[in-house]
Amino acid sequence: MLVRDIIKGPVIAIESKTTLEGAYRTMQEKRIRHLPILESGKLVGVVTDRDLRLATSVLSASPFPPGAQVAEVMSRSPKTADPWEPVEEAARTMRELKIGCLPVLEEDKLIGIITGIDLLDALIRLTGVDKPSSRLEVRLSDRPGELARLTSFMSHRDLNIHSILTYPEGPDRVTAVLRVGSIDNHSIAQALRRAEFEVLWPPEKPCLR
Amino acid sequence: MPSVIYHPAYQTYAFGAEHPFTPIRIEMLLDLLRVLGHSVQPIAPEPATRQDILSVHDEEYVRRVEALSAGEEVPDCAEYGLGTPDNPVFPGMDLAARWLVGGTLCAARLVCEQKEKRVLQLGGGLHHARRKNASGFCIYNDLAVATRYLIRQGLWVAYIDIDVHHSDGVQEILDNEEHVLTISFHESGRYLFPGTGEIHELGSGGGRGLKLNLPLEPFTEGESYLEVFEKIVPAALQRFGPGILLVQAGADAHYSDPLADLMLTTRDYELIFRRILEYAETYANGRVIFTLGGGYSLPAVPRVWAILYLLINDLPIVHDLPPDWVSKWSQRLGEKLPPTLHDPNPGYPDLPRRAEIAHHNRREADRLLEATSRFWE
To answer: Rounded distance, CA A167 to CA A150, Å?
Structure first.
């Protein structure tokens, strides 16, 4: 999944001469928190609702008046993303720099912006929870061929895997989390156990049959 | 005398021998009612028409069901949820599915024509079917078709779904209907199919605040289930003021169900059914339609639905099952059936985390009521 797959257009941007009041109104009307700032069509900065609130706060030593220009309070030369960048790269950049958005540039032209919310949407899509499906958790040894064994098991049963994620658990094991397009993950789990997989979810019912 | 709706053609809705959604469930139920001495004389419906189906489904989807049903190749059928392990193709599937929709529609007509107040449709409840795809064993959404009909007749519909899975298809199709309240109790979608049914899914447009979902913790037991059921359903019905209740009475929240993780016993089901009948009297002039639904534990499902039949007909709940019926079906299923209508007591060993689970469900129910209350003021 690339940045270009998750940006939503058209991007809302303002000019650097816009007043703080004007920028604030745009954020309220469009229900957004981040605005790229342009000068002659070129990206020069980013302003967030937090920047505006801090700049105008009565708690500040010298608060800006509502009529000040955003150029005075914006972050200059912001970090940007490339549309062909994988989303996880963008996420890591935002996390490391502790920033809430990345304007997306294609040959110096602003074509979009991604925010934390877009990354959450991406997470939802990556985990497959936006499709009718059920969840399986299987613990695997961290060695070549284990995941293949699991997916070929699914393939033999003609089961469509909507998503598969793995994360390390200790030095030599990984947990695979799958969303499969079937209502009956319990019989899949039972069959996996018979094939000597360690299934963490769904559990075996403590009773019966 | 409440009406029962059924036609032998319902048995043609069958995905194959290994499939959990098997018509044997109804065969066992009818056989049980017969040996209990109740000669069920069902009203035979007509299959729903193509036009009826198109009141909730997209034509591009219906065309594909028809083509597959007639044995034609449909290369993109998986995009429509067809030809998958859950919803395999079988010859005649279009008509078989229209029979089930026709039954639920027939129930709706009986009530609208004031011929009947309580109706039991011995099939249907296909709550996962979406506008343009099959899902979770459901091809056509009989519940949504019947609801659309009831609204057109001027009845406000309160839909109550006790199947263990979220009623995502009904919710999707009726999301913005202002005259339909839907309440779904289900095991949390965090793990279970279809993955939806969170509290914040409250409906859209004119239906905002009228779609209620209570996701329950896996291993929820009867006491906690009843507590949140009694907290939410009467409160919602009182505010909404329905003309009729439409109930999807799936039996897969039973503790022995192989597809899910809730822990209801037949005694819990009896209490839930009694409550629903009381609510129908109090809030909907006694008008209520029950459909069946999920339910995959063959030793449990016919007993749950036999209890429903007895309660609807104000008949006493018998204690013992006829031994002949027990031995006949134990033999056929290769699985031992209990000798009594109710589950053995206790049905399963004590579970850990009972108080924690009950606490969690209580908190979710409170959150749901709080989230909906601002739409009701």
So the answer is: 15
Beta strands in B141-220 (DSSP E): 157-161, 180-187, 211-216
What ipTM was assigned to the predicted interfaces of this complex? 0.82
Rounded distance between C-alpha atoms, residue B55 and residue B65, angstroms: 16
- What tens-digit pLDDT sequence spans chain B (377 residues)? 789 999 999 999 999 999 999 999 999 999 999 999 998 999 999 999 999 999 999 999 999 999 999 999 999 999 999 999 999 999 999 999 999 999 999 999 999 999 899 999 999 999 999 999 999 999 999 999 999 999 999 999 999 999 999 999 999 999 999 999 999 999 999 889 999 999 999 999 999 999 999 999 999 999 999 999 999 999 999 999 999 999 999 999 999 999 999 999 999 999 999 999 999 999 999 999 999 999 999 999 999 999 999 999 999 999 999 999 999 999 999 999 999 999 999 999 999 899 999 999 999 999 999 999 888 86
Q: Which of A135, A157, A158 sits opposite B191 (nearest CB)?
A: A135
Residue of chain A with shortest Cα separation from B192? A134
Chain A and chain B share a number of CB contacts under 8 A equal to 84
Amino acid at residue number A45: G
pTM for this predicted structure: 0.88
Answer yes or no: do B86 and A158 touch at CB < 8 A.
Answer: no
Q: Which amino acid is at A165?
A: L
